[in-house]
């Protein structure tokens, strides 16, 4: 497995290798640097200044169940969901987290019975996001335990099912699959934004996770939010965040609030340059067209065909254009990740997602230059 350090090492190769065909193209991580161009264009609109004396207290809103939630950030979350129409925020508690990764852990903590003799099973339908099993079991908790592919789960009693929709790695719209009465569901909606998938209705689940990482591309700000119906579950999630980090960076929340504000403003202003989502939708559409054309020669690769749906945000029908390409190596190639590595493209094997090593996940959100180099490499491989 590549670490972040390896990532910077190969970016270095990418910029210094003399011949473009010798460059290592690293598309293993879902780093959303594609969005930098838009935010650069926004200039100072997202700049905030925080003086030395500000944001010093641990506390943000002592009257709120989530006492470390910055009110301005909460307001911008509600506004953006209203503008996009992708989630119901009424009668929900908002819990902020250091990325939705922390909120995922908080949700597991909150939903696991405290007095059970055995850890509760945590499942997700394969192919599932590769971090779920690693995060669930990293502390070998007595509270919860990874139990694999939800489609094979047949134990009775309580369980937690993770539903990622649209799904990482394959981009399909997902619903729960276990359907037993004692299931507790966590909906990870990191990619339920109109640049990736048609918005079909406002999501209205018990526990929903979102992140600025995939919405606006501000992964380094490390901010996510949960919309939680049940007060006791929200309280326990807050407790977890108190125990692990005594709250969430106020500086980051204020920066995220400003970014979400500018994203909402861009949708409402009808400027000629278009909204943030128009920009990112167009860029994703262009990339998917390029990739689809590049892999069209029959024989070597295939990709899933995801059905189009009507999007209430764009008021039109379109096919999902996921943040990742889920590519299958056809024929005799059994180690698809290895095949890409031989061609100096780093991607993540299907085996990390509970699927076959004939499949790989490829990041579609890298900078333009890297994506262009990737498409050229794919064309070269097939020649
Ligand atoms: N959920 C899913 C499905 C993801 O793909 C990611 C990021 N790869 C996350 C959660 C984590 O997001 P964050 O940066 O907010 O921790």
TrEMBL record:
UniProt KW Metal-binding keyword: no
Keyword Cytoplasm attached: no
UniProt domain Alliinase C-terminal: residue ranges: 25-380
Cofactor or coenzyme needed: pyridoxal 5'-phosphate
Domain of life: Eukaryota
Chain segments annotated as transmembrane: none
Record GO biological process: amino acid metabolic process
Keyword entries, A-Z: Aminotransferase, Pyridoxal phosphate, Transferase
MF terms in GO: carbon-sulfur lyase activity; transaminase activity
Family statement: Belongs to the alliinase family.
Listed name of the protein: Alliinase C-terminal domain-containing protein
Full-sequence portion shown in this chain: 170 to 552 of 552
């Amino acid at each position: 497995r590549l670490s972040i350090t390896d990532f910077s090492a190969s970016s270095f190769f990418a910029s210094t290798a003399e011949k473009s065909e010798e460059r290592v193209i690293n598309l293993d991580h879902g780093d959303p640097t594609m969005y930098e161009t838009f935010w650069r264009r926004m200039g100072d609109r997202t700049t905030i200044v925080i003086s030395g004396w500000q944001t010093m207290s641990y506390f943000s809103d002592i009257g709120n169940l989530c006492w470390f939630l910055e009110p301005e950030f909460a307001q911008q979350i509600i506004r953006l969901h209203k503008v996009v129409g992708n989630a119901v925020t009424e009668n929900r508690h908002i819990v902020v987290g250091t990325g939705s990764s922390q909120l995922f852990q908080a949700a597991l903590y909150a939903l696991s019975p405290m007095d059970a003799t055995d850890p509760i099973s945590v499942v997700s339908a394969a192919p599932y996001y590769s971090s779920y099993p690693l995060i669930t079991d990293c502390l070998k908790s007595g509270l919860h335990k990874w139990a694999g592919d939800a489609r094979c789960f047949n134990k009775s009693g309580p369980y937690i099912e993770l539903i990622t929709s649209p799904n990482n790695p394959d981009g399909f719209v997902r619903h729960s699959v276990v359907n037993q009465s004692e299931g507790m569901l966590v909906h990870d909606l990191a990619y339920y934004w109109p640049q990736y998938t048609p918005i079909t209705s406002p999501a209205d689940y018990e526990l929903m996770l979102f992140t600025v990482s995939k919405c606006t591309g501000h992964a380094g700000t490390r901010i996510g939010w949960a919309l939680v119906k049940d007060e006791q579950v929200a309280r326990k999630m807050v407790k977890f965040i108190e125990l692990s980090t005594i709250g969430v960076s106020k500086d980051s929340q204020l920066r995220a609030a400003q970014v979400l504000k500018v994203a909402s403003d861009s949708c409402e202003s009808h400027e000629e340059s278009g909204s943030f989502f128009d920009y990112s939708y167009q860029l994703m559409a262009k990339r998917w067209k390029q990739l689809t054309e590049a892999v069209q020669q029959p024989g070597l690769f295939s990709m899933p065909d995801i059905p189009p749906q009507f999007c209430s945000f764009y008021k039109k029908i379109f096919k999902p254009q996921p943040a990742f390409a889920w590519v299958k190596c056809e024929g005799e190639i059994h180690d698809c990740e290895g095949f890409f590595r031989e061609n100096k493209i780093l991607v993540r094997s299907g085996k990390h997602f509970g699927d076959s090593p004939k499949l790989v996940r490829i990041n579609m959100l890298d900078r333009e230059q890297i994506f262009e180099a990737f498409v050229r490499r794919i064309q070269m491989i097939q020649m």
